[in-house]
Amino acid sequence: MLRNKVLIYDGSRFSSQVIEAEGALRWASWKHDGSEALIVGNSGTILVYSADRKVLRTISPPVNVNLRGVGFSPDDRFAVIVGNAGTLLLLSDVIRRLESATASNLRRVAWMPRGTGALIVGNEGAASFLAAKGLKRVYGVGNNLRSIAWHPKEDYAVVVGNSVQATLAGLVPAPGFYRFESDNFSLTQIRQTSPETPKDLTCAEWKPDGSHCIIVGYDQSWHTPELYSFDGKSLTETDWKAENLLPTGFGWHPSGKYGLIVTGGLTGGETGVVLSYDGGTPSVIHRESRYNMSCISWNPRGEYALILGSSRAHPYST
Questions:
Q1: Which of 55, 213, 258, 283 is 20 to 30 A from 231 (CA-CA)?
Q2: Average pLDDT over residues 198-214
Q3: Mean pLDDT calculated for residue range 243-264
Q4: Distance, CA of 149 to CA of 167 (rounded, Å)
Q5: How confident is the model at residue 164 (pLDDT cuts 50, 70, 90)?
Q6: 3-state SS string over 267-313?
Q7: Mean pLDDT, the chain, as a whole number?
């Protein structure tokens, strides 16, 4: 069993819990009513976490692979879980494995706000849309995709990932920012990241009012943080001067007043950092020695944030 640390932030102070699991905890998603969350991780780890801050039970998956993303449907009737080797699981009263459209590692899943389907993305440009009629492949990209953010009021999503892709000729530049349109199932480039050094964009999330989307990541050569804002038309980069900060997650407080950024490290067992962001330069509010952070997920009621940490979490593996 592996010791993981879960941080709880209530807006003013931090507390922590040690949770033992088969593998490193990697991602969490709350039911929209705030009653419980699903936490997934390596070696097929699936935990049900209650709103009163307790692990209720462990769910045994049909496969023993590293699970990397999870998302509840808007009506909370279903949860989709994704992981390595194209793993795609559907959880309702029971858990079952769905046929996948790829053998690539899947990293994130996010449901459309109106609940008609879920977008799934992963490595090597893997992208598909899961709806009642089945799974539809989305083509057009070749780089590793890392995060999805649906606009809260419109039927499109921001998708981000690595700014390079592997080809027979070696690594070549690739767009780091995409827009997914649900009416034509296409990923179109928003903007190419700076070509000087490769970027890894790890997380995107729209402000609850839909005014803009925050995107975080890091420069893979200089190990400096990256922070962008997208208003639906243009992308603006924030001049964030810091070193050895590798953002792995971002989450807006449900009120939209501020958000939290969490970071990982280049190796396991470094110091994970939590930063507060309100539109200016992010400020450090907590450091957790020997634990890298992989996910920040606010309870929808806004009472507290759930932050996952592991001694084995790496920014490139979240």
A1: 283
A2: 96
A3: 96
A4: 27
A5: confident
A6: CCCCCEEEEEECCCCCEEEEEECCCEEEEEEECCCCCCEEEEEECCC
A7: 92
Contact 62, 96 (CB under 8 A): yes
Name the nearest CA neighbour of 186 among 130, 235, 127: 127
For residues 88 and 97, is the Cβ–Cβ distance under 8 A? Answer: yes
d(CA 223, CA 285): 20
Q: Please say whether the beta carbons of 310 and 318 come within 8 A.
A: no
CA distances from 146 to 89, 228, 316 (A): 18, 15, 9
Q: How far apart are CA 63 and CA 81, in angstroms?
A: 12
Map out the domains of the chain with their CATH numbers: 2-142+183-190+244-317 (2.130.10.10)
Cα–Cα dist 299/191, whole Å: 32
219 sits in which H/E element: strand 213-219
* AA letter at 36: E
Q: Please state, in angstroms and as integers, the Cα–Cα distance from residue 231 to each residue in 151, 181, 212, 239, 282, following that order.
A: 10, 16, 4, 17, 19
DSSP state of 105: P
Given a cut of 60, is residue 142 above it in pLDDT? Answer: yes
- Output the DSSP codes for 154-218: SSEEEEEEBSEEEETTEEEE--SEEEEETTTTEEEEEEPPPTTS-EEEEEEEE-TTSS-EEEEEE
3-state DSSP assignment of residue 85: helix
Quick: pLDDT tens for 219-246. Answer: 988 899 999 999 999 999 999 989 889 9
Q: Token digits for 25?
A: 């905890």
Single-letter residue type at 258: Y
Is the Cα dihedral 47, 27, 120, 43 positive or negative? negative
Tell me, what's the pLDDT at 70? 98
Question: Residue 90's closest CA among 106, 74, 110, 70?
Answer: 70
